[in-house]
Amino acid sequence: MTRALAEAHSERAGAPHAAGAPLARRRRRIDLLPYALVAPFALFVVLLAIVPAAWTIGLSFFHDAALDPPVRFAGFQNFITAFSSSSILQSSGNTVVYMVVGVVLSTIIGTAAALLLQTSFRGRSVVIAVLILPWALPGIVAGLIWVNVFDANTGLLNSVLTSLHVITDYRVWVGDNRLLTVFLIELVQVWQMVPLSALLILAALQNVPDELYEAARLDGCSGWALIRRISVPLARPGIAIAAVQSVVATLNIFDQPYALNGQADAGASLTMQTYFVSFQNLDFGQGYALALVIAVATVIVSFGVLKLVYRQVEY
Amino acid sequence: MALSIPPTPLRGRRARPGVVRSVGVVLLLVWTLLPVLWALDLSLQTGAQAASKPAHYLPPTPQLANYARLLFGDGDIAESVRQSSVNIVIECVAATVVTVVLATLAAYAFARMTFRGRNALFYLALATMAFPAYTTLIPLYRIMTGLGLVNTYTGIVLVYVSGFLPLATWILHSYLSSLPISLEEAGTMDGANRMQVLWHVVLPLALPGVVSTALITFLSAWGQFLFPLVLSTDMSTEPLTVMISSLLGRHTVPVNLLSAAGMLAIAVPAVLALFLNRYIVNGLLAGSVK
Prior knowledge:
heterodimer, A: mainly alpha, 16 helices, 2 strands, 1% strand, B: mainly alpha, 72% helix
């Protein structure tokens, strides 16, 4: 059909010159409009995405520090220096915890939310509208909002738990115990990721034909068995996409730990270390190396999760 | 093909929610809204009220003094909140307009025209979405430094557009591809050239897709933090998100004032999300189905 349109156009353009020289006609055939339409797009993608990405890959093998010029080839030295730093190693551990906690929780809560919203009820569209709110908020402001919940002096959590006599006195939640810090910070990111996960899984659930549920009900399935045997298996394409989105977000987490825990090591992620080495220590070479490690890890883990969770579904 | 959640569900399945479902939905709403409502609560209290133990779960004497101080008051906090609010609006609107215009032109070419290198360029752009945005952070900073575009709106907008253009084009491409081509052919038969067909036939039909794309681009731009943190070293271009992180870092700003600043920062995205959520949902689903 596209060709029909193109032909209609070239016929109109070519008709008056039908008897002209073959060479001239061939030159006239080159349709410049599509090139003009995609040119700005191509410029942006190539100059400000492809070139910088290639730059990161290439320069990660060079020594490139503002305080120690010139730029010179360094082999794997940037990677070795980076990963012999104890705070970067600790941040790698934090990042793995961020990812595992975040992917597991956002997938489970997202699936639960999608199942809750699967069949219609009064007010469902309002619930969906409210549900996407955390996704729409900037990570740094979501961090600020949750700082008020976790705060050691004025936080909601301390107040509620003391009133309920779960804890005897206000305590520090974020910044003290490292694992708890990472977990609570990740909870904020999960809060922001659940809407997208739920929508993706909900869309997959909406594709499951009603007849399958009816057939299963006739066979005596109900409630939990329907969820376990029909809904979840058939929503796997949606669950897989949701999980991959969470992998990318968690492995690159920056805003939430920066807002909740500042520049302290306890909650620092690898992306935060990239920022510190590049823009505070001005060691760009190490920054490139760390950014490359994160990118490669993101791609590998994404494919792994996709392979693990995704199944082609036919109804 | 874009998936979507049917707006009007089948009548027959509209059942009264069971107990499990009701409890679940209430929990979901509490989890989603409680932190935001708590920040709203704090923003309506005085400094002494916000610092009390146990906390006031409702503002004892609701007052807008914190907002008034930020919006109309003196002092460097109020001034930088106002300046950074202007900055974030300028940057997000500019990035959204440029992204949507360029993405529409490119998506139209990708969806409706054949040209040399079409698939290569299309998949190259998709591939850039596979690697994390921060991979390009340091090179983009150095490019913008080299061009003298640090601390300029242009620098920030260029970086935003480069980041959002592939996804925006992808969403619009899947939207345009789902439109029937017969109307465009009729337009061509009537003697309209292809740009006239785009403007008079395609765009009116694709308007919901354009709105979705614009909303998602705008919200993504509003949420940016690390890129503008690196690309703005003074108050002249700092967006509200960067400003708020510096307030958080000072530890001397009272929580009620901080919460009011946070509420100002979420006002625009919250209104868009609550009232135009159908466009956002459709755009997100169109952009994620691969």
